[in-house]
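User: Can you predict the 3D structure for this chain?
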Amino acid sequence: MNSFEPLRRRGNKLIAVALAALLTAWMGCKPADKPTEPAKDSGDKAPAAQQTASDESPAPTAKTPDAPVAPKQLPPRKILESMVAKYKSATSYADKAELRVQASLGSQKVDQPINFLVALVRPNKIRMEVYYGTVVCDGKDFWAYSALLPDQVLKLKAPQQLTFQNLFIDEMLSNSITQGPTQSFSWVPPQLLLLWAEDPLKTILHQAQEPVLASNKDIDGHPCYGVEITRPEGKHVLWIDTDSFILRRLEYPTEELARELGGGQQLDSASLVANFRDAQLDAQVNDDAFQFEPDPAAEVVSFLEQPAMRMLGKPVPDFKFVDLDGKDVTPKSLEGKPVVLDFWATWCGPCRMSLPLIEKVYQQDKDKVQFLAVSIDDPSVPDDQLKKTFDGLKVNIPIARDPQQHVGKLFHIVSIPTTFVVGSKGIVQFAESGLKPTLTADLRERLTELLNGKDLYPQVLRRAEEQRKDYQAWLDKWVKQGLFTTPTNEMQEAPKAEIGKASQPKAFTLTSLWKNSELKDPGNILVVPRPDGSSQVFLLDGWKSVAEIGSDGKVVASHALDLDQREAASFLRTAVDGAGKRYFVASGMMQMRAHVFDENWKRLISYPADALDNPHAGILDVEMADLQGKGTPQLCLGYWGVLGVQSASLQGERLWANRSIDTVMRIAVLDPDAQGRRDILCTSTRGSLLRVDCDGKSQGEIQVPGTSLQWIVAADLDGGPPQELCGISAQEPGVGEVIGLDLKGQRLWEYPLPKGIHNCPVEQIVSGKLNLSGPGQWLVPAADGSIHVIAADGRLLDQFNYGAEVHGLATAQWNGQPVLLVTSPGTIEALNVSWPAADKPK
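Assistant: Here is the predicted structure, written as structure tokens:
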């Protein structure tokens, strides 16, 4: 990739830069002082790609121009099946493969070879050089490294048998091997897909049209069948040897690649082709292919991680920078206050986006924290150019330079922007690379914790360990599933629900009181109990309006929500304070802010106030409750990503934040204790529940065996403690179950849901009362339009089909009768509920 460095520095927008970004999108810009690669082959031998075959192997056939040959009459599926059978029965494989990216726009051209080599001897010898990752296993030791992570070499004991799980055991290594322009077809190299997958055609023909034959032709002197496979991402052509059924070439679609490389311009040409040169099955592979000698300067590790992470909890390196007044800046000169070191360069586009985000924190905290923007520009770049860059960005952070190239030598930075946070005693507390839109809020939060005397690095290290465990669980799932397309492709393939024909419940009778079809787009429903026992009903009408519906089905009032044009609401919440004053909250999935309204729907605050200008990853859930027991409700917000769960006052002041979990899909508020204080439960990407107290402190994690919870609701259904808890567990998209559980993580009951995913935001579990004198129930709307009524103890009381997609569900009390409220496309309906005397739920 070094050949792209001059183009990147000049800010060239064409294909070379885009290709580098495509292959290393998660790394940011590469600095000029690329460190020495951490490993080397033993001795002065030729590269592995030239030595995988033994001396006894047949000499490669001289390359001849591709030319048509007489086709053989075999169906395309038969050709694919024959290829798979050959690879699955083979005891060894070796090639000198490379992936080649070619593109042109006018006089500018790219012809970029990329590592794609595999040599393998069953059961546990391999050499693989794919993208930026290298793996070598000789049956005794397992070695691996990533060219993107200098000075680290992974060493493990060789497994008795190599599998996908132990080959991709390390996430950083896996990223280096799988994240490239071919991953939409298969995120494992096609050679390994054919050699190891239980059913390679499950991946090759994923969402594909029936394969067809192309005209046969020679590939490197080998007559080959051409099998065209058209999938959603485009057409692939597999060139398969007519004699040996070895895959000789794989042509990938270029539509997405052209968009990525062209930067909005129409390329003249683009191609993405894997050539499996000299590929052989069942040939003897030279043992030299499996030899590996690490660089003596490299650190041998048990897992790979970004070098900056390895500095956490250690003293900051003994650097010497120079400010623009010519004064030395050293760790000693910065002692006494926390320090933010941000490494950047004038030629780095992501740096230009991240520096203004840091500037906002600098303006707030510069009296308590020292900030330093360290330029890694070449010394020939004048100071005036650095100042001019900052003036254009309206950034005032003090600038320093790195004349001794400490960035690479001491801080081991492989990409910029990279930001370090150093404590007042010189200990590295935090480090992060790349551009994050949430940088302002994240950095502000970390500095607040640091100024309050809390070390940051233990939590960061714990999270890294948890992420490694999450990765292993993800890998096990995908290998077990046997479908090696990218996760995003598979997530799109959730089962589709078909709306069932309307039916009546058997345990009780529903009688339509009225239907209202006047509303534009009725959605989720919020029922507010009145002092006289009746109900006040509000529902969202579209994304920016709330309608109040009377017991006669007419619109009592319509309230336009005072939202920015970029904002929308998909759920409503409510609470009262100690004086009985009611508040409402409106927000939505992946919104930037939650909005608090008074009882007349006048907007009081939007939180976080500056989120439209300083975007974060998105809000997933909001609850409003009096956590402290002082008669003052507060907001609890669950965020997508690393912001975790946070609490704010109704005046818009953040009260606390807990970042020990990420992606909080749902929050449940628990019963008050003897002092009136309440804890909350939060879902997370780990599938467990985190219990958080009223001050935001973690009170332990609740694991439910065999369950991955994405939804949690707490309610008092039976009129006595403890509260009942109900959640939804989904092991794969669109396939889930409702479960009951307790606070010890014990699964009390389960109920499978019909397959399918809701097409609109809907409250997936609702607590309600379908009878006024007995206990409450869980009401669960499914994606197929069915409604499931479940007792507190998990008994299924009834299920029936509403006959339309359910957009909102609730129970209310009108005129002394229980009412079921259902919204569907264009309609809200009230249904009177009546039970036979002997069958009322108990």
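Residues 629 and 675 are 7 Å apart (CA to CA). The chain has 14 helices and 51 strands.
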